Amino acid sequence: MPTKLKVLLGMFVVSGLFSAISGQWPLVAYAVVVCIGVARGHEGARHLLRMSGAAGVFLHFGTGVLAILATLAGGLPITALLASLVVSAIGGSSAGFSYWCLGEADVQHWMYEKSMGEIA
After folding, report:
1. Do 41 and 111 touch, CB atoms closer than 8 A?
2. Angle subtended at Cα 72 by Cα 82 and Cα 92, rounded to the nearest 5 degrees
3. How far apart, in whole angstroms, are the C-alpha atoms of residue 76 and residue 111?
4. Model pLDDT for residues 50-73, shown as the tens digit of each residue
5. Which residue among 53, 62, 105, 119 has the highest number of C-beta atoms inside a 10 angstrom radius?
6. Among 23, 8, 24, CA closest to 111
7. Distance CA 7, CA 65 (A)
């Protein structure tokens, strides 16, 4: 398994644990299903994660832009703007990593071999 895929799975495990701690059970189920699908090499799981990564990048970018506009309009304090931008940067970068990782040739090749049973 490529190292970047191990990192991605680790990110989803941590996300699932935090979701379980906060009682967000649909997100826990999503993290479990995605981790199992990626670990088994399912192409559908890769596409689902890649699309959710792209959507996450756009949503976090949009949140940052809206926070800037709200601050410029005088409706959001500067500290709230900074907090929003930090959260948007962290969320957007993790979603971007997910999108990038699953588009890499070595990850696609590993998942193909895994799904065909060529590797254990």
Report:
1. yes
2. 40
3. 45
4. 999 999 999 999 999 999 999 999
5. 53
6. 8
7. 29
Phi and psi at residue 72, to the nearest 5°: -65, -30
- Work out the mean pLDDT of the chain and round it to a whole number: 91
d(CA 42, CA 15) in angstroms, rounded, equals 20
Residues 29 and 45: beta-carbon distance below 8 Å:
no
25 CB neighbour count, 10 Å cutoff: 10
Query: What are the tokens at 111?
Result: 């998942």
- For residue 120, name the pLDDT band (cuts at 50, 70, 90): low
Q: Which residues lie below 8 Å from residue 34, measured CB to CB, with a gap of 6+?
A: 12, 45, 48, 49
The reported pTM is 0.85
Which of 52, 58, 57, 54 is closest to 34 using CA atoms?
52
User: Which residue in this structure is represented by tokens 């410029």?
Assistant: 72
Encoded tokens for 80: 């709230």
